[in-house]
């Protein structure tokens, strides 16, 4: 009897769990209290974050769910999202959708926005569901900008590659130039030292010349002056008595009081 009671209890528990799961599934897939209409989104964007039963929100308010995801037979290469949206959702002809991520779970949902809420309402037609345009969401924009940045970086790297290759040669050239400048500076320094030494030697020579040579030059000038004076006297004497060069000067003429002195005649 106890075994039968345990079996009945286990069976009842299993039935209860199935009932709870069925109720949860019904609650998750239930309509929001009103009639729902079909809408479609045809896109070439990546819809990997979406799955059937993903939420559809209008400015953050849940208005429906994704019914199915497949391929668009009317537009090859496009993915077709079929949506079930409440009839009371204020969709207009200017409404558009984006794919957004919910929190940190990574689950996606369809976010519908409206540029002009005063636009005419988007009429429902379940036989030929109206289509809502899908624009790139924030994640797609970031990915697009990242790809653009990567492309620009690649172009910049290609542009700078010749400059990077030229850097070693420029470095060697700069090193050679620095060495040449250093050698030139060394040569200028040596020349300056030589000029300083030459200036010191010249100054010493001038001092030596002034201390020793100038007095001797003065003596030579004095002797030369005396010799010129003597030569002038000789020339004057020869001019007054030219025969003195042949016969000599002879005896000197007697002066006053000496024998043979003759007084010169005084002319009136």
- The count of strands amounts to 7
Q: Would you identify the regions where 5 or more consecutive residues have pLDDT less than 50?
A: none
Fraction in helix:
40-55%
Radius of gyration: 64 Å
Shape verdict: rod-shaped
- Tally of individual helices: 3
Encode the helix/strand succession as letters.
Answer: HEEEEEEEHH
* Average pLDDT level: 76
* Largest pleated sheet: 7 strands, mixed
* β-strand amount: 15-25%
Main structural class: alpha/beta
**What strand order characterises the main sheet?**
1-4-3-2-6-5-7
What is the first-to-last residue Cα distance? 208 Å
Topology (elements, then pairings):
Layout: H1 2-29, E1 36-43, E2 55-58, E3 61-71, E4 79-86, E5 95-102, E6 107-114, E7 133-134, H2 138-240, H3 244-247
Parallel strand pairs: 2-6, 5-7
Antiparallel strand pairs: 1-4, 2-3, 3-4, 5-6
What does this structure look like?
The protein is built from 3 helices and 7 strands; from the N terminus they run H-E-E-E-E-E-E-E-H-H. It is of the alpha/beta class and 268 residues long. Strands 1-4-3-2-6-5-7 form a 7-stranded mixed beta sheet, with no helix packed on it. The protein is rod-shaped and about 200 Å long. It starts with a helix and ends in a 21-residue tail after the last helix. 10% of the residues are buried. The model has no long low-confidence stretch (mean pLDDT 76).
What is this entry, summarized?
This protein has 268 residues and is of the alpha/beta class. It has helices spanning 2-29, 138-240, 244-247, and strands spanning 36-43, 55-58, 61-71, 79-86, 95-102, 107-114, 133-134. It has a seven-stranded mixed β-sheet with strand order 1-4-3-2-6-5-7, with no helix packed on it.
């Amino acid at each position: 009897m106890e075994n039968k009671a345990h079996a009945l209890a286990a069976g009842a528990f299993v039935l209860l769990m199935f009932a709870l799961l069925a109720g949860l599934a019904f609650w998750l897939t239930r309509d929001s209290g009103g009639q729902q209409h079909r809408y479609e989104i045809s896109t070439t964007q990546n819809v990997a974050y979406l799955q059937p039963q993903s939420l559809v929100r209008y400015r953050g308010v849940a208005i429906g769910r994704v019914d199915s995801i497949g391929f668009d037979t009317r537009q090859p290469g496009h993915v077709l999202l079929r949506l079930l949206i409440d009839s009371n959702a204020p969709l207009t002809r200017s409404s558009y959708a984006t794919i957004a991520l919910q929190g940190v779970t990574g689950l996606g949902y369809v976010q519908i926005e409206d540029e002009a809420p005063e636009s005419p309402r988007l009429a429902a037609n379940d036989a030929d569901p109206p289509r809502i345009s899908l624009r790139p969401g924030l994640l797609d924009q970031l990915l697009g900008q990242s790809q653009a940045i990567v492309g620009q970086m690649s172009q910049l790297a290609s542009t700078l590659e010749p400059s990077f290759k030229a850097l070693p040669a420029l470095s060697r050239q700069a090193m050679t130039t620095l060495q040449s400048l250093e050698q030139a500076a060394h040569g200028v320094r040596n020349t300056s030292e030589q000029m300083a030494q030459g200036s010191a030697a010249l100054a010493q020579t001038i001092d030596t010349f002034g201390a020793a040579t100038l007095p001797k030059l003065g003596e030579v000038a004095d002797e030369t002056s005396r010799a010129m004076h003597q030569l002038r006297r000789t020339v004057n004497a020869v001019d007054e008595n030219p025969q003195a060069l042949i016969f000599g000067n002879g005896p000197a003429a007697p002066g006053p009081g000496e024998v043979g002195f003759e007084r010169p005649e005084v002319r009136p």
